[in-house]
Recover the amino acids of this structure.
């Protein structure tokens, strides 16, 4: 993975220095790493059974690689103009909360930003019988995230859809309540 990180830093440097493109503000090493870099908890074991997700690297590897990436961004003068974003979590609200807390603890000494994805319909009945995906609604979830992060830490929502009820719609987010 380290060679890919170095290549990403080289690309960002080229975009800035050679192409004079300075519109990249945030970068994440992995899209939705919660299903790639597993952590051990009762919730994680329920959502990601070991037999369906064998041989996944552990969460400390995710932390190590992101710290390496942040170090290279700093070394090449890309930081703070380009901010590293961690967590980038997508699974149900309970997992998003768990991963955000994990990342806040793991990256407490690092100047990073946080992101998440939300594909949850604002329909409490949709989650009945599945406590691993229970969802309080976007407004309450955001308030809970803010309690963890504090008022000033950037929190990015960069993938979202409130209409498709998961992955069942051909065009997620397009519909009477889509965004």
């Amino acid at each position: 993975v380290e060679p890919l990180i170095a290549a990403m830093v080289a690309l960002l440097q080229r975009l800035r220095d050679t192409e004079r493109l300075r519109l990249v503000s945030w970068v994440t090493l992995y899209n939705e790493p919660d299903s790639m870099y597993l952590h051990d908890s009762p919730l994680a074991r329920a959502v990601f059974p070991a037999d369906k997700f064998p041989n996944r690297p552990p969460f400390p590897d995710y932390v190590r690689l992101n710290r390496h990436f942040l170090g290279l961004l700093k070394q090449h003068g890309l930081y703070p103009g380009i901010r590293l974003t961690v967590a980038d979590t997508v699974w149900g609200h309970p997992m998003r909360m768990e991963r955000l807390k994990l990342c806040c603890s793991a990256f407490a000494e690092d100047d990073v930003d946080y992101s998440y994805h939300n594909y949850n319909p604002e329909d409490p009945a949709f989650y009945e019988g599945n406590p691993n995906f229970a969802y309080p609604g976007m407004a309450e979830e955001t308030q809970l995230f803010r309690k963890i992060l504090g008022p000033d830490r950037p929190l990015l929502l960069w993938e979202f859809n409130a209409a498709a009820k998961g992955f069942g719609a051909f065009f997620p987010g397009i519909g009477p309540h889509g965004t």
About this structure: The helical segments are 2-17, 42-47, 59-75, 93-106, 138-149. The beta strands are 26-27, 83-89, 113-118, 155-160. The first helix runs from residue 2 to 17. The longest strand covers residues 83-89.
